[in-house]
Amino acid sequence: MNKVIISCAVTGALHTPSMSEHLPLTPDQIAAQAIEAAEAGAAILHLHARDPIDGRPTADPAVFSAFVPRIAEQTDAVINITTGGSTSMTLQDRLAYPLLAKPEMCSLNMGSMNFSIHPVARKIKQWRFEWERPYVEGTEDIIFRNTFRDIGHILRELGEGCGTRFEFECYDLGHLYNLAHFVDEGLVKPPLFIQSIYGVLGGMGPDPENLTIMRTTADRLFGRQNYRFSILGAGRHQLPLVTLGAILGGNVRVGLEDSLYLGRGQLATSNAEQVRKIRRILEELSLDVATPDEAREMLGLKGRGRTAF
């Protein structure tokens, strides 16, 4: 079996400061947690930016520039910059920093979708910042937009223009077919890195059977030799699903973007805690963990030297 790539999504744009005191918000916190996660075994660091004053999601290149170069200086991990940002950002906002940085990898959501965490608002009794409650409740009535034209634009500008490859985020079965369309159009070439995502309200549910459906469909559409499969389980589904995915021959993604917990009722105090836990599970399953350079080779990445960090 191939070595397993561990991705770590450090902060994201969905969780808010009131949900966990351990969620990194400032450039210093994001850099420190990302570096620690890489030291723990994460080969890929998936990065969003936060307003350092109140923790709201931001696409400001100046904020990204306050922590991404520091991570690049202190780790050899693959730096993966979001093109998803948040539901409130325009496509131009979302591409502002990636087009400047020309990273080895960016995430790419493979379709427009409902993307909601509004039920979480009922559980929070006290909010740290005024923006949080309307932001969380507002996800009930917001669509994340990535049309075929949007996706094509990203593939041309970042992929063809900058040599960036992608973590194709597939929240539903149809997203695999969307990806196949762009393969047919010649805008995407193997090896593909397919991040299959389970448990987000608006996307595919966390049923274990869905992993098999996604895996066999990807086999049929792309041929197993042409893609690397990875698993993201949202919230409490994180560890069970990524463990199952690894057993099925996939790679894994953890991090505080995807789940704030280390175990039942136990908040993770850092991203590195989650990385260390899944690494231990993988090693106990006799699976080897990929280094950053091994991940680069597996995914056909251009290398750190061709970025603009």
Automatic annotation (TrEMBL):
InterPro entries: Aldolase_TIM, BKACE. It is an enzyme of class 2 (transferase). Pfam families: BKACE (PF05853). GO terms for molecular function: acyltransferase activity. This is 3-keto-5-aminohexanoate cleavage enzyme. Keywords: Acyltransferase, Metal-binding, Transferase, Zinc. Its EC number is 2.3.1.247. Gene3D superfamilies: Aldolase class I (3.20.20.70). It comes from Paraburkholderia haematera. Signal peptide: none annotated. Its cofactor is Zn(2+).
